[in-house]
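request received
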Amino acid sequence: MEENISLIKHQQISKKFKIDYNNIRELFYEKVKDGPDDIFLISPGENTIEFTYAELKSLIKNTYGIFRRLELKNKDRISLIFHNSPEFLVLYFSALCFGLTIVPINPDIAPKEMRYIISDSKSKVIFYSNKLEFKIKNIKNLDNVKLEKITSVNDQEFSLKNEDGFEENEISINDIAVIIYTSGTTGNPKGVILSHLNLLSDSKSISEWFHFNTKTRTLCILPLYHNNGQITTLLAPLYQGGSTVIVQGKVSLQSFWDLVNRYDVTWTSVMASILSILLSISKERKDQTLKAILCGGQILTRTIQKQFEDRFEVPIFEGYGLTETTSFSCINGFPAGKRRIGSIGKALPINEMSILDKNSKNVDENNIGEICIRGYNVTAGYLGLKEKNENSFRNGWFHSGDFGRKDSDGFFYFQGREDFLIIKGGENIYPAELENVLYQHPNIIECAVIGIPHKLLGEDVCAFVKCKEESQISETELKEFCKNNISNFKLPQKIIIINLLNDLDDIPKGPTKKILYRELKKYYMEKYQRNSKN
Amino acid sequence: MPIDTKELDMKLEEILKKVGLDDIDLESTIEDIPEWDSFTHIQLIDAIEEKFKIEIEFNDAITMTSIPIIKKKIMNYL
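response:
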């Protein structure tokens, strides 16, 4: 299919990568042909739902009837507001096959933020779960947008047969498949445009990296309104004719090992904080099927990785990517013997990665610079943000705003976000450096390091730590511990033990369990800076 | 051991308070409450098991997503 692909500058790479299909519909239909009776989806619950490939195709055709009733046409945009559920999945595939563009929205954000995304994306219809009606009612001023409440895929309208003779809409590989909104450094979220090319290339690449096949069964616990859940645990197994178990994220961790065991899960994708939570509870692994766990989105410390692998005997593969790169752009070597522990791995074959300085020049091996990416999985850009696009996509590279280094063997190492970089008296300090040290303390469950204002140095270091319930450790003792493990200038001026706070129970995290450093900084500024002024 | 609704409500309120969900409406669902996250759900199920001395099956644990369902499920175990 490569000859049909028109690639923009920051999607071009020196090596060709074969994309086998023009769009997700072609991929899905071929898999239906290959194994119509194979299970594609399991959604455990009170009434566990299972779909074979052929059953899902039939549901998709029926859903076209709903789209036509709502007068939706090829390339129209729709918003989906659901937690992980079969309803989301049926609408997701139906929309992709119909030729619509999907704008998935996090159901936990405020109605005001939802309104911004709906309006910015120019969605024509909002499909939402009946369980979220209380929230949807509070979205104000939705002129000319239709609302479609969905209760269950077992509802009558999903079973109304539609004529097979309906001519499918034409979908080209560069058509927009999904627009995913990510938080902006300031102000409103920005819509990342992802085409069928982006989805196909990233999912194929991940499925090949981990040797997926028709027996692969993933567990999808990350939210499907984000890229990671969609690509790694839904589209990547689809690419090889595998299957997926989807669960509402909030209830999945308590039953993680039971789900793996009951459904013979072979592979999953998580955030590092999920591994910490699984380590903190007393449930043990019972299965013999889970082969690998992909971990990305935040720093995975060596301590957590080692503890997890020692206790549960399953290898963790660290990776790195952003919404702008569809999902992952590099992953540690597979199988486990090819890993370089502490690294986020090597570039996937669909993209090239480089470490560049401020002038977009390559930095020397092992020197720190900005992680830049180009390739088939890189977004065409942000929706309607000309200036931001010019800044982020220049000289043929996507500039991630993340810092890292590359070793002589091509393994990359993540250092931190530009925004989280702490500059203390001219010295750069990456939060991960101190976090790695703190995680080595046996009493610490979780920690996050931020920069705080300092009159002379510009910034100083502050660590928030969550200790084990029975821990009696003091700030002084923790500082003493750090002193022996990290350079003096990187020592935290303040260590805040969350267990001792009345107004903060946990390190704030987003829906994918990514630590919200900005929230933590806001908390610090409001509480401690205000006090220091008084 | 059978339990009456009043006692169930009382014990459940104690549990909700312990896991930081004390301000919630007893008709609430997991979708309504941002504080009811995955970690809280783990603590909630653990606390229910401990308080009522029951072992909750995983199929029940993943469907205990609202207070009315939780009450119903607990009753089934007692």
